[in-house]
Design brief:
The structure holds 2 protein chains of 2 kinds. Chain A is mostly beta strands. Helix content of chain A is 0%, strand content 57%. Chain A has strands spanning 3-5, 9-13, 18-25, 31-37, 44-49, 53-57, 60-65, 70-75, 84-91, 98-100, 104-109. In chain A, strand 7 and strand 8 form a beta hairpin. Chain A is globular and about 40 Å long. The termini of chain A are far apart. By secondary structure, chain B is an all-beta fold. Chain B contains no helices and 11 strands. In chain B, strands 2, 4, 5, 6, 9, 10 and 11 form a 7-stranded mixed β-sheet that branches. A 4-stranded antiparallel β-sheet of chain B has the order 1-3-8-7, with no helix packed on it. Chain B starts with a strand and ends with a strand. The chains are: A mainly beta, B mainly beta. The A-B interface holds A 4, 8, 31, 33, 35, 41-45, 48, 87, 89, 91, 95-103 and B 31, 33, 35, 40-45, 48-50, 56, 58-59, 90, 94, 99-106.
Chain lengths: 110, 112
């Protein structure tokens, strides 16, 4: 079977840095995506990594290590509005299929 | 652009009833898909389509049908609703060659 593991909850202070990890075991791997979802809202795309290394987009960065089947999302200068659930998702092959993790609920406190 | 739209926003069904969840996108995206999200869980793929006339099953296809007669529309049909299908349903689209999926606002379905 396919599995993606993420911590269920993370709490951090406004202005701090937080890292959300994702480890995966899938029968195929093309790339790792990250999505943000606020309560009651739709998921929105944050990043996609196909190659090893760090991708930076403003306050958010995403890292991938294919050899370790591991990635993380790094959020810097946390703001209250960053309180949301964050999902990693593996694209397994050339098709459209994405397998999602169960999500990490991030709570940012003042 | 309206993006990805879904109707209805909320729906209550009785066990055994059938209904269709509507999804449309105006971005001319080739790929469309349906997911369900249960409390505390990630999204699970129900069905997807890589273009008009082409559909395929995802992780949890049982109890659902889809069709893709046009690029814009991708309806999801529940054949005979069951309480286990109580969930939030998201439709998504993606441009061929792109990595970003665009999600609709979701339909919250309750089956009694």
């Amino acid at each position: 079977g396919q599995s993606l593991e993420q911590p269920s909850e993370v709490t951090a202070v406004e202005g701090a840095i937080v890292q959300i990890n994702c480890t995966y075991q899938t029968s195929g791997f093309y790339g790792l995506s990250w999505y943000q979802q606020h309560d009651g809202g739709a998921p929105t795309f944050l990043s996609y990594n196909a190659l090893d290394g760090l991708e930076e987009t403003g306050r958010f960065s995403s890292f991938l290590s294919r050899s370790d089947s591991y990635g993380y999302l790094l959020l810097q200068e946390l703001q209250m509005k960053d309180s949301a659930s964050y999902f990693c998702a593996v694209r397994m092959d050339s098709s459209y299929k994405l397998i999602f993790g169960s999500g990490t609920r991030l709570l940012v406190r003042p | 652009n309206a993006g990805v739209t879904q109707t209805p926003k909320f729906q209550v069904l009785k066990t055994g009833q059938s209904m269709t969840l509507q999804c449309a996108q105006d971005m001319n995206h080739e790929y469309m898909s349906w997911y369900r999200q249960d409390p505390g869980m990630g999204l699970r793929l129900i069905h997807y389509s890589v273009g008009a006339g082409i559909t395929d099953q995802g992780e949890v296809p049982n109890g659902y049908n889809v069709s893709r007669s046009t690029t814009e529309d991708f309806p999801l049909r529940l054949l005979s609703a069951a309480p286990s299908q109580t969930s939030v349903y998201f439709c998504a689209s993606r441009k061929q060659g792109g990595n970003e999926q665009f999600f609709g606002p979701g339909t919250r379905l309750t089956v009694l």
